[in-house]
Design a protein that fits this description.
The protein is mainly alpha-helical and about 150 residues long. It contains seven helices and no strands. It is globular and about 55 Å long.
Length: about 150
């Protein structure tokens, strides 16, 4: 079953369960998928849907930080709840130790010698962790581990 089909089934179940939060998040994701399909003129692949889900999750993370800075705990809690719904549709996120190991292996594979090789390392690394790790965390770890 594709991710879009799973979202549709879960949306129907959320309607039956009267789960307003889950329903609104799924509707928003499905709307984003539909808009992207219209823009591209074709159906999205599973990888493209995952990328879209990651983009939505990143938006929630950014909003959460802003809400916490502003002291808006009510909105921060809403963002956390929406993030939980989105995380259910993404592959299991890698732990920081797992990311560090993958980064170290990739640095050795591409023969990176300094921070100048950051682009080369990130280019080889991102396909390995796409959808499984936050890009900003991966970038920070790469910068720490590069001499």
């Amino acid at each position: 079953m594709s991710l879009v089909e799973t979202l549709t089934g879960d949306m129907k179940q959320a309607m039956k369960d009267k789960d307003k939060l889950k329903l609104s998040v799924i509707r928003m994701v499905k709307s984003s998928i539909k808009n992207e399909e219209i823009n591209q003129g074709k159906e999205l692949s599973e990888d493209q849907v995952l990328a879209l889900l990651n983009r939505e999750l990143k938006q929630r993370r950014d909003s959460l930080q802003e809400f916490e800075k502003a002291g808006r705990e009510d909105l921060a809690e809403q963002s956390r709840a929406e993030m939980e719904v989105l995380l259910a549709y993404l592959p299991k996120q890698l732990e920081e130790s797992e990311i560090r190991q993958i980064v170290q292996e990739t640095i050795e594979q591409v023969g990176a010698a300094s921070k100048k090789d950051l682009g080369k390392v990130m280019g080889a690394l991102m396909p390995k962790v796409r959808g499984k790790a936050d890009g900003s965390l991966v970038n920070r770890i790469v910068q720490e581990l590069l001499p």
